[in-house]
């Protein structure tokens, strides 16, 4: 059977139509752990007899007929549930097929990764320019409901089945966000999500050429595309390089290894794996020398799993700075074992450690240079169910006040109370946007407000983390 290493970004799933995706990492053959083997049929026989007795009792005498595969699947799920490990999962044949398909070059869905943290379904990170990102989903958002149905008690695969759907169809998510009193309802229209994972260009800064490589996830072709893009940048005689893995929820370990092999010399391990008995294995590149130019890495709280492997390798083994915010924090290793009937068991087997032996699980990686984005980068999406006006108080008014302030209009306060100054600011925005200046925050005004703030966020001049990285490389 083929063996696969799995490092979950919070046991992440790509929300694809017809494909239960995930952040799964194929290892080099020499790193593969052996499949779990029975220690001996005789040793297991007494307990297996008990399981057999329960199976026959239910299958032959239960008040209603039960399909055999349902009982078998239930028994396996029960064993895994006793581990109380959200990262160990049983996938039936259909789910396993979706899991495999998720590594394709594109899929249909909303374009985000979900995971489990403290027993809650959370957003790990939306893909760049995906419907999820455009709708305002952010890392660490807790998912409460899908189309009005609670996800409490559901695992990731059950939750993903509720979210997935055909391109062009809507899905409504209810989320809980830190710092917001009431749940936020977000309607998203599913679309095709192309997995173009590497974006490259040259930026001019203080008369120097700085290469910029953004890696949005690690798929089958990412390392190949990265290598090609890096060579093109080097052909342009760059004076420095920025690698941007902000919002990158993870991907294939093999891609990460190949990318690290281009950048990190072999004097230190780029990764350590710890078994349950405490034994550790170290892995090295074959690179002899560092690049002749400085490198900086951009990270944030949406950088998870494989992104953290890359970031820690570049920081601790390569000596390059990390700029931005603390990462997500996922440091477990899993092996996905295909069963003969096409089903799959994904079991946590190891911890992965940084080159210096640090376990970042539930801690994240701290940046070398901590830089937070402007406040308006974290504004919440506006959900206007009714028009909001003077003397009203609401969370949505507070969100709108933050957006107005980001656009240079002064609402006077940001506490959610709609006073005269807020009304004046709304009128000023409406005039500026070519809308009827009523001073009332209606659905059309809210949509235009969100659109203009989004454009401001995408303006590189407002990206403080990127600006700091550029200044660092040319100093």
How would you describe the overall organization of this protein?
The protein has 475 residues and is of the alpha+beta class. Among the domains are: 198-331 and 357-373, 2-enoyl-CoA Hydratase, Chain A, domain 1 (Alpha-Beta Complex); 387-460, PGBD-like superfamily/PGBD (Muramoyl-pentapeptide Carboxypeptidase, domain 1). Helices cover 31% and strands 23% of the residues. The protein contains 12 helices and 21 strands. It has helices spanning 41-61, 68-81, 93-101, 131-135, 156-163, 222-235, 253-263, 306-317, 395-406, 420-432, 443-458, 464-474; strands at residues 4-6, 13-16, 19-20, 89-91, 106-117, 120-126, 142-146, 149-150, 170-176, 184-189, 191-194, 198-205, 208-215, 240-244, 271-274, 280-283, 295-299, 322-324, 332-338, 344-353, 369-370. Strands 1, 4, 15, 16, 19 and 20 form a 6-stranded antiparallel beta sheet that branches. A hairpin with a 7-residue loop joins strand 9 and strand 10 (184-189).
What's the topology here?
Blueprint: E1 4-6, E2 13-16, E3 19-20, H1 41-61, H2 68-81, E4 89-91, H3 93-101, E5 106-117, E6 120-126, H4 131-135, E7 142-146, E8 149-150, H5 156-163, E9 170-176, E10 184-189, E11 191-194, E12 198-205, E13 208-215, H6 222-235, E14 240-244, H7 253-263, E15 271-274, E16 280-283, E17 295-299, H8 306-317, E18 322-324, E19 332-338, E20 344-353, E21 369-370, H9 395-406, H10 420-432, H11 443-458, H12 464-474
Parallel strand pairs: 13-14, 14-17, 17-18, 18-21
Antiparallel strand pairs: 1-19, 2-3, 2-5, 4-20, 5-6, 5-11, 7-8, 7-9, 9-10, 12-13, 15-16, 15-20, 19-20
